[in-house]
Design brief:
single chain; mainly alpha; elongated
Length: about 190
């Protein structure tokens, strides 16, 4: 598996479709945290995020095994698009069955990796994440989505535009207005 680290996404996909199961493990290991954290930030529930993540992996595996994957060189944006669509499905189900409640809002803090921080740094980090999450919640959904995809999933504006079905300029505009609105919320002006 160590040699798989140096392989490109397309090489790992080709190895997997040729029967090398460990290639898929390497590929999913490469992106599982990024996918999970993005899903968690969108659905705000650790247990539902875990379920959706599993559904994303199942969909990825089924598509790769069936030979329907055609996104040469764009595995992560493709996987993020699957995750995004499954999150949308989750919210549609939630609207149809409103009795399904999320567990707790603080679980997003469980996923943050704090490496070698002292207690004060950890407290500041947790408080900052909590404030940022609260501020993001106050933004319109389209602005919040672009900010999450850009800053938490590290997607390009082209990838965000493709995923959300808007133009690059619209994605840029949503980011700009989202950041302006965040600044207003932070300063109170």
């Amino acid at each position: 598996m160590i040699t798989d680290i140096k392989k490109s996404d397309n090489e790992l996909i080709h190895l997997f479709t040729s029967g090398n199961e460990s290639a898929l493990d390497s590929l999913l290991e490469r992106y599982k945290d990024k996918l999970f954290n993005t899903i968690l930030f969108i659905v705000k529930d650790k247990y539902h995020a875990e379920d959706i993540s599993q559904d994303v992996f199942i969909k990825i595996i089924e598509t790769l095994k069936s030979g329907k994957y055609k996104e040469e060189g764009k595995f992560l944006p493709w996987a993020m698009r699957i995750a995004h669509n499954l999150c949308v499905d989750y919210f549609r189900k939630l609207k149809r069955f409103p009795f399904a409640k999320s567990s707790t809002d603080n679980e997003v803090l469980d996923t943050i990796n704090c490496t070698e921080q002292n207690a004060e740094d950890k407290i500041i980090n947790v408080q900052s994440v909590g404030k940022a999450k609260d501020l993001l919640e106050k933004l319109p959904e389209e602005q919040r989505e672009v900010i999450i995809l850009r800053h938490f999933a590290n997607l390009s504006f082209k990838e965000i535009a493709d995923m959300t079905g808007c133009s690059i300029n619209t994605a840029l505009g949503r980011m700009r207005y989202g950041l302006m609105n965040l600044r207003k919320l932070m300063t109170g002006k």
